[in-house]
Amino acid sequence: MKTQICIIGGGPSGLMLSQLLHLKGIESIVLERCSREYVLGRIRAGVLEQGFAKLMREAQCGERMDQEGEIHEGFYIAHDNKLDRVDLFKHSGGSSVIVYGQTELTRDLYEARDRMNGEVLHNVDDVVLHDLTREAPYVTCKYNDENIQIDCDYIIGADGFHGVSRKSIPADVLREYERVYPFGWLGILSETKPVSPELIYSSHERGFALCSLRSQVLSRYYIQVPLSDSVDDWSDEAFWNELKRRLPVEVAVKLETGSSIEKSIAPLRSYVVEPMSYGKLFLAGDAAHIVPPTGAKGLNSAASDIYYLYHALLDHYQNDDDSGLDNYSAKALARIWKAQRFSWWMTSILHRFPENSSYDQKLQQIEIEYLFSSDKALGSLAENYVGLPYGG
Ligand SMILES: Cc1cc2nc3c(=O)[nH]c(=O)nc-3n(C[C@H](O)[C@H](O)[C@H](O)COP(=O)(O)OP(=O)(O)OC[C@H]3O[C@@H](n4cnc5c(N)ncnc54)[C@H](O)[C@@H]3O)c2cc1C
Question: How would you classify the pairing of strands 200-202 and 74-79?
C-alpha cells in the first residue's frame, strides 16, 4: 500500500489529522490497534477549548458538538465548606469552554472518515516503523492475518502513551521528563442529573473531588484515591458517601445518586518527551505528553499538536515550505509545557499529598484564598483554563 501520510493510532489526534488533511487533498491511512467499538467505549475527556472546537468545525465534524455540547462560562472551586465561582467569561475577556465528551467527538470523527471513504484499518497488530531517517520511510503490520507494508512520505505517531511510535526513536535521542503523582482518580459515570450545571473542583482535607458532566442527564464524578486502591474496593454506595463528604453541605444535599454505568481508576502522571520529531516521524498527543486531568488539558494539548502538524504538512505539500515541519517539535513543545505547568499547578493546589506537612497544607489553603481575592490571579487561571492561543 502507498499513501502520503501514515498515521499510527485512531484516537482523536490521528482521526482529526487524517480528516483535516483529506479536506485539503492530502492522503493518509490510519492504523488502529483496537476495534472501533473498543475505542468508542473508552470514557475519557470532556472539556474542550475553543481552539479544539474550531478545529472540529474546520474538519467538518462540529455539527453535533455545536448542537449538543454545552458552553460553560465558569466553574466552581469548593473549599472550606463553601463554593467560589471562577467566571471564565469575565476573567478571560469573553471566552468559554465546551463540555462535549471525547467518546462523542471520536464518534463524529469516525463518521466523517467513513463519509469520505477515509482509510482507517482497525485491529492491526505488530506495527513497526522503518527507515525513519531515510527519504522513503514505511510501516509494516499485520492486518486481517496478512503482513502488509505501507510506503509513505511521513509517519505520524498518534498512538497514545503506550504506543509504538515514541519507542521507535533511539533512546539516546529522547529526553523524558516525568512526575508520577502518589494517587489516582476514581471516576464513575452515572445516568443522573448533574449536581451543578457547571463543574465543581473540590479541595477537601479527605482529598480532591470533581463534579463533572457529559450532559444534563449524564454525570461524571471523581474522587482522589490512593494508588493502592482498586475499583473493587469501591461499591457505588461507598463512592457516593465519600463524594458527599468532600463537597460543601449545600452541594452534598442536592447530589442525585444512582448506579454507575462505568467505574475506573486513572493514575495521575505528568510526562513530556523531547523532541517530538525524529527524521520523518512526528509524535502528536498522548504519544508525546501526558497531564493529570485536573484542568482538562490532555485532549486539548493533543489538539494543538494537530493544529501545528496540519499547517506544517499543508506548507510542505502546497507551498514547498518545510519550515513548519522543521520547527514542529519546538513550536508544539512551547505550548505543551505551558499546559503542563497549568495542570501541575491545578493538581498541586487541589489535592492532598501524603507527604505534605501542615505548612504545605496551609499554603494550599492560602493559594485558593489569594486566587479569589485577586482579579489578576483569576485572570491567569481563566486564560489558561480556556486555552492559550495556538499562535502563528
Ligand atoms: C482514563 C483516562 C481519562 C482521561 N480523562 C481526561 C479528562 O478528563 N480530561 C482530559 O483533558 N484528558 C483526559 N484524558 C486524556 C485524553 O483522553 C487524551 O489526552 C486523549 O485521548 C489523547 O488523544 P490521542 O489521540 O493523542 O491518544 P489516544 O486517545 O490514547 O489514542 C491513541 C490510539 O492509538 C492506538 N494505539 C496504541 N498503540 C498502537 C499501536 N501500536 N498501533 C496502532 N494503534 C495503536 C490506541 O488504541 C488508541 O486508540 C484521559 C485519559 C485517560 C487514559
Answer: parallel
